[in-house]
Amino acid sequence: MNVAELFQKDIHRNINGVIKVGQQDNENIRQELEEYVVTHELDKHFRTFFERYTNAISNPTDKMGVWISGFFGSGKSHFLKILSYLLAN
User: Fold this and answer.
1) CB 3.0-4.6 Å disulfide test: which of 24, 31, 56, 74 passes with 70?
2) What span, in angstroms and rounded, lies between the C-alpha atoms of 78 and 84?
């Protein structure tokens, strides 16, 4: 057995190394959603966002905002793009 056989998907497939907001082709969106891994930490952040988001719908306020912070390459843009897909659908 070689290392490539340990993985479910072809390890030689094209994987975008940088997430770009303007990439809206269906194939790119499908790959992003299919391969996005929600860790326990990400799950916590998604839950926090949606708890506050739904609370703001029930209790309208003009004091609404979101701050996403993290080190370079930590996945901020990817998180935001996945969040935008969830909000759009």
Assistant:
1) 74
2) 10
